[in-house]
Amino acid sequence: MNHYVELSNVSFSYPRSKRIIKNITLKLNRSQFTALVGPNGSGKTTLGKLAMGILKPSSGKVFICGKNSTEMTLGEIGKKIGYLFQNPQRQLFALTVAEDIAFSLEWNEHDKAETRRKVTNMLELFQLEHLRNSSPFNLSHGEKERLALAGIFVNHLDYFILDEPTMALDMERKQILSDILEKISSYGIGMLIISHDQDFVNQHADRIIKMSEGEIVYDSTNNLRP
Amino acid sequence: MTAPTTLDPRTKLVMVLCLSSLAVFIRDIYVLVGVLLLSFLISVILKGNLFPAFKQMKRLLLLIVVVAVAQSLFAPAGRTIVALGTVPILTTGGLIQGAEFILRMAVIVVSATIVATSSYREIVQGLVQWKIPYEIAFMVSVAIRFLPMLIEEIKDVMLAIQLRGVELQKIPLRKRLRIYSYILTPIVIGTVIKAEKLAAAMETRAFRAYPQRTSYMILKMASIDYMLISFSMLAFISVVIVYYMWGI
């Protein structure tokens, strides 16, 4: 199987604190929908950030597409993996909703007409057309979350790490997100979803990893999706 | 005797005020080194957290070259070390002024670690007991409390921009400046939103509902505080008088 992200004997601790991640070895595969579950404070978000290269391990190595993450710039990693923060407010920075979605396409010199088409698609997909010219900072939490998702899905990447993507969504929007993720998944795109939403996890995940106190206590690839 | 770490925050504020004022007034590199060493000593005695200060100073060291070249170019003094034709690029005077600038900044950074050995609540209480209006003291406390959050937010936006696949290192400087303007938007808007929320929270907790405020925390100065305040002020005045009388 094609390993997109590989963690090898990774441990991590924040300055002046105890170890949050304890010697974890893990392979995340492309074309697999992986769910990372566990109680609060078990190290899920930290593991997600380590896999994304946002945090550098205290010991051990993280490989992204076979390359050591410490040798990669964040921009380089951003071209390979899309990341959704737990708090979407942290990843919105443009003046309008449309501009925010177009940001990465514009800076990576995509064709203007193509950029416009992709932005319109994302606005429709995430039901944000009516907010096209609104400021991202005046949106509700759910709308911000959808916008942050649109901003990362507009890049056609091979892997996504989403930290609590359903947290602020109502049932209807959750179903829409479910449909989008199913569709993306069917294209062979891999995902690591950090979630507390058991129904959502059971509905989508091919593989469930459970963490407790910085360790993986359960890893099953035999999840039977309905 | 009161333990040094339990010094009244007002004593620390006076000491820091004297040290940073000296750093601004003095133009002699040797005296500045002395002021910096004294700041270090006080911070170490008060168990200040010097590690982040060292990190900040490491970054400041890079500035020494910029300041030295700027000084050499616009106010050349001393012997020329590097020149481009007849234009001096680096002079001994420029180097000394660059070093003085860094020393001044270092004194201010270390002074901050001295004040930080008191909690921001204690500092506010100190200001209030100095008869500074509570509204102003509260604003100071808010500024102290929100500054690290602001720095954190700037880092977050930089991170988010790069995670969208923008390789900052590969973007030409002129275009990179446009990217930096994206940092300003969320920071300014975020600060205004936070201020609105804070104001609402303060209103709901009856801020300024009564003209008189009582306080759970009352600071009391010990004899060591009076001694240190007197000594700091005396030392400050003496140094300034001697420095200006000698005309160094």
CATH topology of one domain in chain A: Rossmann fold
Largest sheet properties of chain B: 2 strands, antiparallel
The average pLDDT value of chain A, as a whole number, equals 90
The top-level CATH class of one domain in chain A is Alpha Beta
Query: Roughly how many Å apart are the termini of chain A?
Result: 24 Å
Radius of gyration of chain A: 17 Å
Domains of chain B, number: 2
Distance between the termini of chain B: 39 Å
H/E element sequence of chain B:
HHHEEHHHHH
CATH architecture of one domain in chain A: 3-Layer(aba) Sandwich
Number of helices of chain B: 8
Low-confidence runs of at least 5 consecutive residues of chain A: none
Helical content of chain A, roughly?
Answer: 25-40%
Q: What name goes with the CATH superfamily of one domain in chain A?
A: P-loop containing nucleotide triphosphate hydrolases
Q: Strand percentage of chain A, roughly?
A: 25-35%
% residues in beta strands of chain B? under 5%
Largest sheet of chain A: 6 strands, mixed
Which shape of chain A, going by the Cα principal axes? globular
Which tags fit this structure?
heterodimer, A: 226 residues, Rossmann fold, four-stranded antiparallel sheet, 27% strand, globular, B: 248 residues, mainly alpha, 2 domains, 8 helices
